């Protein structure tokens, strides 16, 4: 990894090099003095001073094997950043925009431990009254939100969660076989979205997609819900297009501060 071209002429070269060293070690797990100096193309004298600062501030630590690894202060800062992220507040304006674009009800779901819950619900004025509310538990095996929240997790973790799950048959299309459901999750991950084909309620359809953090982990799932009649005549594909564009906007806003001017509603 080298210092990005667009930062090579920065007026704060030491700051650029500090960030480059942290990124380099984060990617490799650990690195020697020689690796840092050579691969980042930083003079040895500068490398020495920069590492001295990073270790003194506990951004890095020097292991007994002579290699540098991330320090405790970075993990403390990471925890503060995570605790300061209100994914509901970040997403709400985009969910309102999505409801206006599609005329469908929009949900946001999150995982807490081994369970999933509705974090937000924006109901369309055109919608029927749905049996969902903020804080309600989400069925993992029969909803598109639940599928999204599981699909990007490690296989071992998914198996542990599903080992405790009850595969209740809600409709004729509900997947009740654990292994078949795990295979279905692989499909969800490959295509990047999930569909509830009347698996929870016969007359209802729901399509969902993930919001990612910078590591590629799923922060939350966003879903569009409506009657089966609303998903015919090419409408499903149209909703999917709007949904994927919205989840990308939310991911960018959360991770990089790239706002795209959603409607200002709270």
TrEMBL record:
<dbReference type="InterPro" id="IPR050707">
    <property type="entry name" value="HTH_MetabolicPath_Reg"/>
</dbReference>
<dbReference type="InterPro" id="IPR014757">
    <property type="entry name" value="Tscrpt_reg_IclR_C"/>
</dbReference>
<dbReference type="InterPro" id="IPR005471">
    <property type="entry name" value="Tscrpt_reg_IclR_N"/>
</dbReference>
<keyword id="KW-0805">Transcription regulation</keyword>
<keyword id="KW-0804">Transcription</keyword>
<protein>
    <submittedName>
        <fullName>IclR family transcriptional regulator</fullName>
    </submittedName>
</protein>
<feature type="domain" description="HTH iclR-type">
    <location>
        <begin position="12"/>
        <end position="72"/>
    </location>
</feature>
<dbReference type="InterPro" id="IPR036390">
    <property type="entry name" value="WH_DNA-bd_sf"/>
</dbReference>
<dbReference type="InterPro" id="IPR036388">
    <property type="entry name" value="WH-like_DNA-bd_sf"/>
</dbReference>
<dbReference type="GO" id="GO:0003677">
    <property type="term" value="F:DNA binding"/>
</dbReference>
<dbReference type="GO" id="GO:0045892">
    <property type="term" value="P:negative regulation of DNA-templated transcription"/>
</dbReference>
<keyword id="KW-0238">DNA-binding</keyword>
<dbReference type="GO" id="GO:0003700">
    <property type="term" value="F:DNA-binding transcription factor activity"/>
</dbReference>
<dbReference type="Pfam" id="PF01614">
    <property type="entry name" value="IclR_C"/>
</dbReference>
<feature type="domain" description="IclR-ED">
    <location>
        <begin position="73"/>
        <end position="256"/>
    </location>
</feature>
<dbReference type="InterPro" id="IPR029016">
    <property type="entry name" value="GAF-like_dom_sf"/>
</dbReference>
<dbReference type="Pfam" id="PF09339">
    <property type="entry name" value="HTH_IclR"/>
</dbReference>
């Amino acid at each position: 990894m080298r210092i990005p071209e667009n930062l090579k002429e920065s007026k704060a070269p030491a700051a650029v090099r500090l960030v480059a060293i942290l990124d380099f070690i984060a990617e490799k797990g650990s690195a020697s003095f020689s690796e840092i100096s050579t691969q980042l193309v930083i003079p040895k004298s500068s490398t020495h001073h920069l590492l001295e600062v990073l270790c003194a501030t506990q951004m890095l630590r020097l292991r007994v094997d002579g290699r540098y690894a991330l320090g405790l202060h970075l993990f403390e800062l990471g925890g503060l950043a995570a605790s300061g992220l209100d994914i509901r507040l970040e997403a709400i304006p985009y969910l309102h925009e999505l409801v206006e674009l599609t005329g469908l009800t929009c949900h946001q779901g999150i995982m807490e431990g081994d369970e999933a819950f509705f974090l937000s619900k924006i109901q369309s004025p055109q919608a029927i009254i749905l049996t969902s509310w903020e804080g309600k538990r989400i069925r993992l095996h029969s909803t598109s939100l639940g599928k999204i929240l599981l699909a990007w997790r490690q296989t071992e973790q998914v198996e542990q969660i599903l080992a405790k799950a009850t595969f209740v048959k809600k409709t004729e299309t509900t997947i009740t076989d654990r292994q078949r459901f795990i295979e279905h999750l692989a499909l969800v991950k490959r295509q990047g979205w999930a569909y509830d084909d009347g698996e929870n309620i016969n007359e209802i359809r729901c399509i969902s997609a993930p919001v990612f953090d910078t590591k590629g982990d799923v922060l939350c799932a966003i879903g569009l819900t409506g009657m089966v009649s609303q998903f015919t005549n090419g409408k499903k594909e149209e909703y999917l297009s709007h949904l994927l564009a919205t989840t990308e906007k939310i991911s960018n806003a959360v991770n990089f501060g790239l706002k795209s001017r959603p409607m200002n509603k709270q």
